[in-house]
Write a structure and sequence with these properties.
Purple Acid Phosphatase, chain A, domain 2, five-stranded mixed β-sheet, globular, alpha/beta, 22% helix, 22% strand, six-stranded mixed β-sheet
Length: 267
């Protein structure tokens, strides 16, 4: 059976030197625990995609600190990096040039790679420098259209940092992928995209976009709350961070996604 298991981490927000975030969250230690969980052998995981906000400010020192923590995982399986609004293209490309797909990118960090016998990961770059929200220009959309058309016998997992659907959280919905509607005709035309993976909101949310299951992965750094107020900013919660596991089946077989909670820091 052509079953593939991939892990999804998101919004790792690593700081230089492995230091905590300004709010005191020890993001490096929490990423270490997430990596240890994936490498524990509990599941036969074959790859890991990290859906953006890899570091907190986009500096070279932060990407060096991130690499130190991801290399043990990279030695065991492919690690696929997606750019988020806290990231910066050039230092990410320089420091991770030997990671899957990154070395083949130029202006935008977009790439596609096979992740199974009939499954392909397609990574999009929704970064708008100095803006929290995301956008896909015509060149990025044209690349996506061409890339899906090129692989006519593979089913696609699409990964993009900014959510493609409204979550109901007004604070985050105001800075999701602003032109997600431009994706819909491309995905509908090809009919082979089976799952859309997002980050940005820091908690697990299942939704649908253009008739396709969409999944916002939990942050392995810290979660934001479930908040449907229209006039309130979301704040980090002292709740467990997490990761996701996606089971990608062969054509015609069901696909499934699972949310995994990770332990909080020792008291």
């Amino acid at each position: 059976m052509d079953q593939v298991l991939i892990a999804q981490l998101s919004d790792t927000h690593i700081c230089a030197g492995g230091k905590p975030l300004g709010n005191g969250v020890p993001t490096s230690q929490r990423l270490d625990r997430a990596v240890a969980w994936i490498l524990s052998g509990r599941l036969p995981i074959q790859g890991c995609v990290i859906t953006g906000d890899l570091v907190d400010e986009g500096s070279e020192a932060e990407y060096q600190a991130l690499r130190e923590r991801l290399d043990p995982l990279h030695e065991r399986m492919p690690v696929y990096l997606v750019i988020g609004n806290h990231d910066a293209r050039r230092p990410l490309q320089q420091i991770f040039s030997d990671y899957p797909g990154i070395g083949q990118t130029s202006e935008f960090i977009q790439y596609s790679l096979p992740i199974g016998p009939t499954q392909r990961l397609v990574v999009l770059d929704s970064l708008v420098p100095n803006e929290p929200g995301g956008f896909l220009c015509d060149r990025r959309l044209e690349w996506l259209d061409d890339e899906i058309a090129r692989y006519k016998h593979e089913y696609v997992v699409l990964a993009v940092h900014h959510p493609v659907f409204d979550s109901g959280n007004a604070f985050f919905d105001a800075m999701r992928l602003s032109n997600a509607q431009a994706l819909a005709p491309i995905l509908g035309r090809h009919g082979r995209v089976r799952l859309v993976l997002n980050g940005h909101v820091h908690r697990t949310i299942a939704g649908q976009f253009a008739g396709i299951p969409a999944w916002v992965g939990a942050s392995c750094a810290f979660p934001y709350g479930v908040d449907y107020a229209k006039d309130r900013k979301s704040h980090p919660l002292d709740e467990p961070p997490g990761l996701s596991i996606h089971r990608l089946g062969e054509p015609g077989a069901p696909w499934a996604s699972h949310s995994v909670l990770l332990p909080l820091d020792p008291r």
